Structures are given as structure tokens and as C-alpha cells.
Amino acid sequence: MIKSGVNKHGCNNCLTTDCFIKQYCSDEYITLISDLKETSIYRENQHIAHEGNVVLGLFFIQKGKAKVISSGLGGKTQVVRLTKQGDIIGHRGYGGEKYPIGAVALEESTVCFIDNDTIYKAFMDNPKLTYELMMYYSKELRKSESKIKSQAQMNVREKVADALLSCNTLYNCKNTYPFLIQLNRQDLSDLAGINTEQLSRILSEFKKEGLISVSKNEISITNQKSLSKITAPFGIVE
Amino acid sequence: MIKSGVNKHGCNNCLTTDCFIKQYCSDEYITLISDLKETSIYRENQHIAHEGNVVLGLFFIQKGKAKVISSGLGGKTQVVRLTKQGDIIGHRGYGGEKYPIGAVALEESTVCFIDNDTIYKAFMDNPKLTYELMMYYSKELRKSESKIKSQAQMNVREKVADALLSCNTLYNCKNTYPFLIQLNRQDLSDLAGINTEQLSRILSEFKKEGLISVSKNEISITNQKSLSKITAPFGIVE
DNA sequence: CGCGTCCTTGAACCGCGTCAAGCCAGGTGG
DNA sequence: CCACCTGGCTTGACGCGGTTCAAGGACGCG
Questions:
Q1: Is B94 at the interface with chain A, CB within 8 A?
Q2: Is residue A147 part of a domain?
């Protein structure tokens, strides 16, 4: 992990507009947090948070993408969710508890870390911040609950469509097509909750049906509408 | 739905100790909310919130139990989570959005409803309330993300053990055994994410192995430890 | 007593995961 | 520059686990 100098990345110089702190804290607190936070740059595949470590604070993704993962039996990994700029990693659990979920950068990412004490003070003095973060978790919870159903009821074909669409909803802000999925087969299958072989098969199907295109092993969504029809019966929330 | 008179159930007369409002609001706000909330009693199997309705506020479970459900394809239902006294139903989404998840009482339950405007004011003036609710959602999110992995990776046997244990963790506060599971086969299988036939088979297995006992179709956990061993490789978070 | 509901058990089918082999692109070293 | 190796991806074959279909039992209720 490359720890950058604290002062070089002051919040006032930060260009990110999605940051909860900058949006919902008083100027006074922005300055305070700016002094106390730590900003680090993670390269692709570097761990931002390790599974099983104690939660010492909150990570804010200033720039980049990450996957939130949870390991199961026999080396299996589940991608629980994907995150982008402005997202938060490391739910604040009950004080000092271990966090059973890890996070890994998918591309070079800039991440701010704010320790529990500092963020707690900010919460107490900036009700709007706490409120918006509550809403954020609430929204994530809805998405997560929706995914439980997907995992329980969908067949592999539907799971793949769902995984592709959730990438699209999250990362394709401008809603333009073709849209490139920036995940390798392993991550994509871990997200869909299936194995890589099945994923390959289904992708080939989709390719034949003209829903996606694959070149140089990179997947692009070309027909979002038809893809959506596959998952339609489930009323997916993204 | 039986709507009780507003004044009869003032917060100051309420005996519940787990209520977020009573714990974290100023006296002034408790009185205000007491006047504006609506308290209703739901009988078993009555809908507290309907899937697809607009979210007009938050439900607090004062007394009783409920299941939070989400319907899928072909009449399938997923029990997304179970709730008890002190829990919250109806995540506040982005303003006025439809809520894709429903809630049904599992037994006679008393539920308080607070509309969006009122609760928003309370949030802005009671930082501790907002903070605790944020923590609540954060905790629920962790549990939910853990369940995604369960659904994706567990086999039916493990899913059943997991479902039984999650009931136990939630409702068996005193941690005494045998502990009666108060769900019928349909609800239990919807919670586990499997069908009733499989559930039956696995329950018979567990019965033979002495992990549970079944009398008059009611399931009791007799050996929580051995049951936990089945799900142990997954590091379940409850 | 007959009916309906819920639960259990059996049997057959098939979707999915596993294993294994082959393909392709990129990197390395002779 | 080519041969070789490696890692990621694809495709096929097979067997198991789980879903589905169907029948029968247990129980409560009119």
C-alpha cells in the first residue's frame, strides 16, 4: 500500500463531488477531517480491507472501483457487491467487531480512511451527514436483499444476465452502448455466484443471441433491453 | 388492519425498551412523535407492508414477529429476513420510491408507523437517533451480505441448518434449549431458499441425527452446537 | 365421516458443478 | 526469432444433487 502524505490530499483540494463528507459536513468539519484522514492509493488486486480484520473506521472511495468479497468453503469466493467512486467500504459494526468481509481494488483506486472516533464526532455534529449515510446503507440493504432472492431463485442464465446488468447499472452512468464490462471471468462468476465454466457457456449463448459482444476476451453489452428481459420476472432492484 | 386510537398508545405509556425513538430521542420529540405516529395491531398473516407500494414512512415493531418477503417467479417467495420486537420495516429509500419488498406478521403484532416528514425532522434534531439507525442498517447489511454468500454456496443441508440457526439467534434470546421454531414448513423453506420437499427430507435427517426434535409438526432445536458445525465453514454472521 | 391443508416420502428427470482436455494470447528465455 | 510455458478462457462429457411430479399419511374442522 502506498501511503501518501496527509497534507497533499486535503479535502479542500479534492475534486471528487460524490464524497459524503464534502457534501454534508460543515466547513469546519471538512477541515478537521481533512487533517485526520489518511488517503492511500491501491493498485489493481491490492486489498483495501482484509476479511476478518477489526473495523477501525470507514473507507471512502475517492476514485476507482473495488469488489467487496467474502470467502466460503474450499477457496470459493463470493463477490458480494461492487463499488465505485463515492461508495463506502467497511460498515460500522458494533464497536471494535471483526469485519467478515474484505475489499479488493479492481483498478488503481484512491481511498480515504477515516477512523471511528473522528467519524463518530462528525456524525454527532452533522445530522445531514448521518442521515445521508443512513440512507446510503438503507439503499444498499435493499439491493442486497434483492440479491438474496436472485441467488436463491435464478438459474445460471438469469444469474449471468443479472450480474452483467448490475455492472451496467453501477458503472455505465451515461447509459451508452456498447458498454465494456471491466471484470475478468473469475470475478464475474464470483459475482453471479456460479463457476467460470458455466459463465463461459452462458456468455457464448448471449454472444450467439446478439446480446453481448466479446473481443479479446472483453465483454461488451450491446443489447441491454433484451438482457433485461431475462431477469424481468424478478423485478430486480439495482 | 385494526387501527387503534392514537392517544391510547402514547410513547410514554409504552413498555417497550428496544424502541429507537424512546432510546435516542429527546423527551420533546418523544411527545411529538407520540402524537403523530399511528399504532396498529396486525393479526397473523396480515400484511404490514405490501410489495410494490410507495414507502410513506417507517414501521417500528413494538411487539411481535414478522417476515420480510420478496416475490419471484411462478409464485415463489423468498423470506429475506425475519424481524422481532424493536426491528424496523420499510427502509427509507430515495424519496417516494416504491418499496419492492413486503412484510407479513407471523403472529399478532403491534406496529408503530411514523411518516417520512416526522421521522425526517426527528433525524435532523436527534443525531444519536440517526446514528443508531445508521448502525442498525449497517448491521442488517452485513447480515444480508452474509446471506448472499449462503444462498450462493451452501447446499440444501447447510441452508436448512443456517435457517434454523438464524431463527435461533434472532428469537432465542435466553439461549435455552430445546427451542421451538415458530415457522411452518413453507416459511422455513422460503427462508432457506429451497422447496418444502427438500426441507422435509433434511429435517428428517436432522431428527434422526438428534439435532432437532419434531412433535405435532413443530420443530425444536435440541442440539445447537452440532447444528452450528454444519454451517461452520462459512463463518456465518447473524 | 368426508374434506381440505399441511407434511412426508418416493421416484424420475435434468440443470449445474466437476473434471479434463484443448485453445489462444502474452511473456520469457534460449 | 522461434520454442516453450503459463494463465485465462472455452468446450465437452459425466455424475451428483436438487427440483419436480405424484402419491400417501396425519391432523383439524365442518
A1: yes
A2: no
Question: Are both A133 and A158 inside the same structural domain?
Answer: no
The residue among B92, B88, B81 whose CA lies nearest residue B143 is B81
**B144 located within any domain:** no
Nearest 10 degrees: Cα torsion B211, B214, B217, B218 = -70
> Strand C: which positions are within 7 A of a protein CB?
6-11, 15-20, 25-26
Question: Are residues B195 and B84 part of one domain?
Answer: no
Residues B76 and B127 in one domain: yes
At residue B2 the predicted structure's pLDDT band, cuts being 50, 70 and 90, is: very low
Low-confidence ranges of chain A (pLDDT < 50): 1-7
CB contact under 8 A, A127 and B124: yes
B135 and B202 part of one domain: no
**CB-based contact (8 Å) between B204 and chain A?**
no
- Whether B192 and B159 have beta carbons less than 8 Å apart is answered as yes
Nearest by CB: A72 against B127, B139, B234: B234
- CB proximity B72 to A under 8 Å: yes
| Among A116, A139, A162, residue at a domain's last position | A139
Q: Are residues A121 and A95 in the same domain?
A: yes
User: B120 and B161: one domain?
Assistant: no
Last residue of a domain, one of B139, B172, B205: B139
- Which A-chain residues 110-139 have CB contacts (< 8 A) with chain B? 120, 123-125, 127-128, 130-131, 133-135, 137-139
Q: What confidence tens digit (pLDDT) does each residue in A164-201 have?
A: 999 999 999 988 888 999 999 999 999 999 999 999 99
Q: Name the phi and psi angles at B80, rounded to 5.
A: -80, -40
Count of domains observed in chain A: 2
- DSSP label of B211: S
**Residues A92, B145: C-beta atoms closer than 8 Å:** no
